[in-house]
Design a protein that fits this description.
Helix content: 10-25%
Low-confidence stretches: none
Largest sheet: 9 strands, antiparallel
Distance between the termini: 15 Å
Oligomer: single chain
Structural class: alpha+beta
Shape: globular
Number of strands: 11
Number of helices: 4
Length: about 180
C-alpha cells in the first residue's frame, strides 16, 4: 500500500501518516510533486529486458513524452539477488538534486522516495502502479531496501539521462530505512 509520512527535517518520527491516495496526492501536490496511480497490469517475465518493459508500456511512455518533452527513457529493474544492489542502494541513499524534472513509474514492486523541502521530509512508499514526478532542484534520496524488488520506468528531459548533484548532507542517515 502506498504511504506518505511527513516529518520535520530534524525528527525521524513522522508528524503525519497518510495511506489514502487522495490524501497523499493532496499533500504532495502542495509541494509541487505530482503523484498518480496508473494501470501497471502487464505481466513481465522474470527475464524481461528493459526493451521488453518499454514495449509493454509503450503507449503510456509515448503519452508522457508527448506531454512533457522527455528526451530519454530507461528501466531500472532490481531484484534481491542483483549483484550491484548494495552499491546502488548506497548511491541512491545520498541526498541529491537534479537540474531536470524526473518521473518514475513503478510497474513492479516498491521503493521509498524521500523529498526534502520547506524544512520537512516527505517519505513516499511507491508501489506498483504509482507514478511520481519530482520537480527539478528538489532535494531527495531513494531507498530500495536491502532486498530490492521493483521495476521502474524512468523518464528524463536530459537525453544523457540521470545526473545527480549530491548535496553532501548526511540527513538520509537520520531517517528510517525501507526494510
Amino acid at each position: 500500500m502506498s504511504e506518505l509520512r511527513i516529518h520535520t527535517e530534524d525528527r525521524p518520527v513522522p508528524d503525519a501518516v497518510f495511506t489514502d491516495f487522495a490524501d497523499i496526492r493532496r499533500e504532495l501536490d502542495a509541494i509541487g510533486v505530482n503523484f498518480e496511480r496508473w494501470q501497471a497490469d502487464r505481466v513481465l517475465a522474470p527475464e524481461a529486458t528493459p526493451d521488453d518493459v518499454i514495449a509493454a508500456y509503450r503507449t503510456d511512455i509515448d503519452r508522457l513524452i508527448s506531454d512533457y518533452g522527455f528526451g530519454s527513457v530507461d528501466v531500472l529493474r532490481m531484484t534481491p539477488d542483483h549483484p550491484d544492489r548494495e552499491a546502488l542502494r548506497a548511491k541512491f541513499l545520498n541526498e541529491h538534486t537534479h537540474t531536470e524534472f524526473e518521473v518514475r513509474f513503478f510497474v513492479e514492486g516498491s521503493g521509498l522516495f524521500y523529498l526534502h523541502t520547506g524544512g520537512r521530509v516527505y517519505a513516499v512508499i511507491c508501489e506498483q502502479g504509482d507514478l511520481i514526478s519530482v520537480p527539478d532542484g528538489t532535494t531527495h534520496w531513494f531507498d530500495m531496501g536491502p532486498r530490492p524488488h521493483f521495476t521502474a520506468i524512468r523518464l528524463f528531459t536530459n537525453p544523457e539521462g540521470w545526473v545527480a548533484n549530491f548535496t553532501g548532507s548526511d540527513i538520509a542517515s537520520r531517517f528510517p530505512r525501507f526494510e
